[in-house]
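Sequence and structure are no longer studied apart. As an example, we show below a sequence and the tokens encoding its fold:
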Amino acid sequence: MVCALLLAGCSSHPPSAAAFMNMKNKSFGFGSGGTLRTGNLYDGKCNNYDHNDYFCVEEARDLDLAFFYRIHYGVFGLSLENFTPNLHAGFLSQYVGLQGWAWTGMGAVEERYGRGGSFYGGVMLIEELPITEKFRIGASEHISRNVYKVDENLGGISFWSADAFGEYGVGAYVSFWGASLEYRYGREIGKSNNRFYFTLNYLFGLKEKTPEEKQRRRELKSALNRYEALRSELNVRKEKVKWLIRTKESQGSVTEEEIEEEKRQLQELRRAADQQKMKVRELKNAKRFDF
């Protein structure tokens, strides 16, 4: 089987924990970043197979892209590691996240040697602690089935396919706004190979309106309408006071008590308008706590 994504890199390792957790305050998200990987990478002669015609290339760097969509506590998406795809699904709360990722379509070498199919993916548990409203730290634990490129030279013909290995590991990260810096350690299952991952990522997104924010927007709209009504009534009252004063001076048919009563009502209306203006200002400046 030729690798389905010949030019895409044929590579899959555990994705970013921080990018996943940064979806907590967003309905849609797009993540962009990169990973540097070091340790016991497959680079050259393959360790899994005795055949001399296999040449393994596990990339030391990745371009990472991710697209996420959140519905309540559920997160779904697609990520690309050097344009090799993974489908995502997971659970997300304020302090804990659980993400799974998977794809199929590679693993030609494994199939030929009877050691599994073309599935790859994994699961990751994430714990996060908010230090401030925007600054967070977190830790993760994962188990996964990773893949990397294999150059097969069979019968004098060279082509790319993929090989897989199991891994378990832990990680930690810091996140500020949408930016995150992440470190992860992985241990290959059944071998003494160790891998060290360093990831820099930024998640752009469309903020989700919470029920509290929607209620605040409704209150703000109502307060603005009330303020505009008071201002309109205030202008009418001002004109009425002016008319009463002119009428008293020209005709004398208006008493001083009537004018004073109208002025008193005008002052009360002005105080009500000022109070409503303050309420509008408070609602505009109100901040939703974004955990």
